[in-house]
Design a protein that fits this description.
Shape: elongated
InterPro entries: DUF2125
Keywords: Membrane, Transmembrane, Transmembrane helix
Radius of gyration: 24 Å
Number of strands: 20
Largest sheet: 20 strands, antiparallel
Distance between the termini: 75 Å
Mean pLDDT: 86
Number of domains: 2
Structural class: alpha+beta
Organism: Nitratireductor aestuarii
Protein name: DUF2125 domain-containing protein
Length: about 325
């Protein structure tokens, strides 16, 4: 009898603490939304609800919305759920419902559909120490297009990871079976790739809410794009920076796998420069697996002392 009474008492006390934590979490959600709704920004969680009893604690929104007028950003998505285990409240996982409407300053408005999209983060001040996003069967279409309209881009799976490394931010991403619509670029076969980039002083960029490349620098640790099921591919690595005028300065190592196959694919994608691409095939074949050193000085690209052309400012 006393054991049963003790179990019931512990359960009641735990339940009371859980609902107390739920009340505190709701207050924090409301406070955070109020803080976000200022200085040209708007944020909303429609019909917020606390869930996860007994071992988790999280927030469920019927829909979410965020807009930053100054940066030209906006995001709207269907039902979104966040949750954290009671014993590790700083590790938060999120599941986002499809579809979402996205506005970015450098792209036309788009609608994104997916089969599954999840994220996790390790909370800290002033920014999370780590963020990971993974999705499957992601399709990108112009905003306002019909549901059966052909997407402009589709990937079967993709991931994005970011973490703090002292004051820098390290970003890694990968994608599989990227397919682009013929309306965007013709004759592009399915692609796959991965990249890892270090953004120097990235924390300052986030604190200043500055996503522009001008005045920034970093290191491309790895950038690889290849054709699915083939050896053809290109890899790039090296330090890179942009001055306040948007001109690039970099020291890049470029390696081409299967030069003949890669040149054939590039010539089909860019028919106007097919002849120069074919002309470079012999040199690349002679290099074998060796990388080519490309030097860029304020937008002027050189292969050794041979000028290659001008790269426009970003």
């Amino acid at each position: 009898m006393w054991l049963a009474i003790a179990v019931v008492a512990v359960g009641l006390i735990y339940t009371g603490f859980w609902y107390y934590g739920a009340s505190m979490l709701m207050d924090r959600v409301n406070t955070s939304l109020a803080r976000l709704n200022a200085d040209g920004r708007r944020a909303n969680c429609e019909e917020p609800d606390i869930h996860g009893y007994p071992f988790r604690l999280g927030v469920r929104c019927r829909s979410v919305f965020y807009e930053d007028v100054k940066e030209g950003l906006s995001f709207r998505a269907e039902q979104t759920e966040t949750a954290a285990n009671i014993y590790d409240p700083r590790h938060v996982v999120m599941k986002v419902g499809s579809p979402a409407t996205v506005h970015l300053p450098f792209l036309p408005p788009a609608t994104v559909h997916w089969d599954g999209l999840g994220a996790s983060t390790e909370l800290a001040q002033p920014f999370p120490t780590r963020v990971s996003i993974a999705g499957s069967n992601i399709e990108l279409a112009p905003e306002g297009s019909e549901d059966d309209a052909r997407p402009v881009a589709r990937i079967s799976a993709g991931e994005l990871h970011a973490r703090q490394v002292e004051q820098d931010v390290e970003i890694a991403t990968s994608f599989q079976e990227l397919k682009l619509s013929e309306d965007v670029v013709a004759n592009v076969p399915p692609l796959e790739g991965r990249a890892m980039v270090v953004v120097n002083d990235g924390l300052t960029m986030m604190m200043d809410r500055n996503i522009a490349l001008r005045g920034q620098k970093g290191v491309i640790e790895e950038f690889v794009v290849g054709v699915v099921g083939q050896k053809a591919g290109i890899s790039v690595s090296g330090p890179i920076e942009f001055d306040n005028e948007g001109l690039m300065t970099a020291q890049l190592r470029i390696k081409v796998d299967d030069p003949v196959g890669t040149a054939k694919i590039l010539a089909e994608i860019f028919p106007k420069v097919a002849d120069p691409i074919r002309s470079a095939t012999g040199m690349l074949t002679a290099l074998g697996n060796a990388a080519v050193e490309i030097r860029v000085v304020r937008g002027d690209a050189f292969l050794g002392f041979v000028p290659l052309g001008k790269i426009p400012p970003v």
